[in-house]
Amino acid sequence: MGKVVAAAVMSLDGYVAKQDNTIGRLFDWYQNGDVECPTASPDITMHISPKSVEHWRTWVSSIGALVCGRTLFDLTNGWEGRHTLDVPVIVVTHHVPTDWVHDHPRAPFTFVTDGVQRAVEQAQAVAGDRNVAVTGGVIARQCLELGLLDEVAIDLVPVVMGEGRPFFGKLDGDDVLLGDPTVCIQGDQVTHLIFPVRR
Fold this sequence. Notes:
The chain has helices at residues 50-62, 70-76, 98-103, 116-127, 137-145, and strands at residues 4-11, 15-17, 35-38, 45-48, 63-69, 89-92, 109-112, 131-134, 151-157, 165-166, 183-186, 191-196. It is α/β, with parallel strands linked by helices. The model has no long low-confidence stretch (mean pLDDT 95).
């Protein structure tokens, strides 16, 4: 079984989006290099710097399934039925979007209405030996508090947003101290970090 990894592109002050869910300068590093990296979406090709591309390719190849919340799903319209990483997606929601499911009959999306832990379990079953990526601040926080995370992967962008949507947000309990980073790669306008979660 692979790891469960909370992943985000984050500002220096801890935000993963603005209050209106736009991302500002956070994703600029996806287009600031000359190494072409196609995605599963034919209209999205990234151009990543040589300093980041090996890390990016290793990360993408390690992912077997993705867990996200309904806010991200709605914001992207479910990536039109195919995530850019071309992996199955497990969506945590209170209500299944039946119209979307009807309009995307072949989409590898599963909607889980009985909580984050169940969503992670389903994602692990789908991912097999590959990792499960958890994205979206609320879902990542719930996974952290439930003890479901093995790692936290941050692409840290040197921008200060001032306000917005924090990655983890307010915890219900005490501070959570992570281990020293097992990955620290300096890219162009981004630093790639992976922290183990202490248990």
